[in-house]
Amino acid sequence: MIENLILLRFTSLHPASLRRVALLCLLAGAAQAQTAPPDSARLSQRRHRLAEVQVRAVGPERFAVGSTRLELDSATLAQYRGSNLADVLQARTPLALKYYGPGQLATIALRGTSAQHTAVLWNGLNIMLPTLGQNDFSLLTVGAGTSVAIQPGPAAALYGSGAVGGAVLLNSAPDWRPGLRGSVQADAGSFGLAGGSVEARTATPSVAVRVAASYREAQNNYSYLQQEARGTVRYTLQNAALRHQWSLSPDVAWRVGQAGELTAAAWLTDADREIQSGVGIAGTQARERDQSRRLTLGYRHVGARQQWTVRGAWFEDIINYRDGGAPSNSRVRTTQAQAEHTTALGARGSLRLGAEAQHFAAQVDGYGTVAIGENRAAAFALLRYDPRPALRLSANLRQAVLPAGLAPLTPTLGLEWDLLGAPDSAAQVLTLKASAARSYRAPTLNERYWLPGGNPELRPESGVGYEGGLRHRRAWGRRWALESELTAFRQDVDDWVQWLPGAGTGIWSPRNLRRVRSQGLEASTALRLRQGRYTGRMQAAYHYTDTRKTQGAAADSDPVGVQLAYVPLHQASLSTDQHWRAWLLSTTLVFTSYRYINASGVDFLPGTALLGATLGRSIAGPAGTSVLLLLQATNLLNQRYFSYPGRPAPPRALGASLRLSWR
């Protein structure tokens, strides 16, 4: 979308300014970029003042031609500001999450792949935990960033290792609107939930600052029913409290001349939680403390026909687990460096060349007393070319170097062709889209170095995926807008890693044992209405995901042709958002079909249909202040279900938030 490419503000229309703007548009391809209805955050970004021109750099999504992209707009994120990313994705999308309970481990699997097949990037940097190769979405707070996007499907050429099933993109872009604005929020809810958050922004013509912080705790002492020989017995969940979870994320942007921008950002998190043992298991007092420190520094220069960016990062991830016996501790420090250069190819294309390097330093009890160090590097080339305004093409390539040698070469080809209308003018646009990509996942540190059982000879997993479909947009004046999309996909993942006990030793070890195929359909539609002071939106989505093992080694005893465990065949979501004067009302309904819990496809978790709602009222105050009261309810139908075997999910829960804002 054009807002992600260039934001322009004119103070005059003299010829020199026009020539400068025209050259910038060549780089961004603004004439061919597809536009979408702007949300409130994007509209506000257009109102600030600059000396002449403000430039937003070309993002990697410009080179993701033909791929599906889901975005959670600012209005949606505002309702979940005190929550974590798992909560908002579970309520607002038909994506598959494996949830161990509130405040417990939550992982995502895109298009039937595993949690290790989803790359998570923060401001363009991969923040996966190197030991596990995945992220706990219950530890990623919503308020730490300003935007959340999901790109399903293989995207290793753009995002590197792990983007086999897709990528989750978290960003915190600077806000250059002048003046001081912010908010303070307090939260309370069922089962001992309490917390709060604060956000403040300010900007001058040369500096923009944003600080966000949040705190949350919960007892999670809700009741559940258990079927026993004596009948149905009610119990109270034990050892499941979230003792505390806080997040602090300051970021600063400095303008350097008319074309440069220096940015610095931090994201500090700390969570102390009890680990519930599960129903029917002897109670334990297990606890885990997760701490992350993420620091980044970058510089971006955007010229008339080119831009270049350099950035560096330092991450530290600490996990301390204890369960009465000897503690298990893990500390991993990651150093990253990236450099990229983008140049315009005439009026119709752009080429980006770049390289990146990572260094991991791990001190993990499971690796013995020796600290482990590992280096990785990659080079990439991204090409976007639009032969005509209605035809957009991309060709991307990445080559990574791993300790065991070269990773699979990962090319990507994409196409978008407007069969009807033009995205920058017509009231109706019908677009054909298609892409083909290869992806890879590098072995994790645990898979390579765990003692006993680590396998330094593991090969990277390799995937090949295809997708194609149609996207339709229709507008009736300024009141009605309809956007629909249908996508069919298929991908095969080879050398899928499986942990198995060794013959005669019983020691578990990871091996490249199987080939898995995932295929399915994704359909979505969104209808928007604006009438006077009323704004309404309804979104519906459906995912059909068929994921099965198609081939395995002799040592892999799991059957061929059975739907993989914890991958639901059907998922659907329906949400509505209505704003009238100072009132808002949102509803969410998410359906998940049954899920097998073992490889044989015999035992399963029943399907669920979870209904939620949010009611809000805003009251204007003096001097640009306002108060917002939010009442939220989850699992309104009070459905009794298990989110994971032995992990009872919470019953109906209520929460309230009070937010004071100023500007």
Automatic annotation (TrEMBL):
Name of the protein described by the UniProt record: TonB-dependent receptor
Protein's UniProt keywords contain Lipoprotein: no
Gene3D superfamilies, A to Z: TonB-dependent receptor, beta-barrel domain, TonB-dependent receptor, plug domain
Lineage: Bacteria, Pseudomonadati, Bacteroidota, Cytophagia, Cytophagales
Subcellular localization, as worded in the UniProt entry: Cell outer membrane
Species in which this protein is naturally found: Hymenobacter monticola
InterPro entries, alphabetized: Beta-barrel_TonB, Beta-barrel_TonB_sf, Plug_dom, Plug_dom_sf, TonB-dep_rcpt-like
Keywords: Cell outer membrane, Membrane, Receptor, Signal, TonB box, Transmembrane, Transmembrane beta strand, Transport
Membrane topology reported for the UniProt record: Multi-pass membrane protein
Tagged with keyword Iron: no
PANTHER family named in the record: HEMOGLOBIN AND HEMOGLOBIN-HAPTOGLOBIN-BINDING PROTEIN 1-RELATED, TONB-DEPENDENT OUTER MEMBRANE RECEPTOR
Residues annotated as transmembrane: none
UniProt similarity note: Belongs to the TonB-dependent receptor family.
Residue stretches making up the TonB-dependent receptor-like beta-barrel domain: 254-616
Residue ranges constituting the TonB-dependent receptor plug domain according to the UniProt record: 72-167
SUPFAM superfamilies per record: Porins
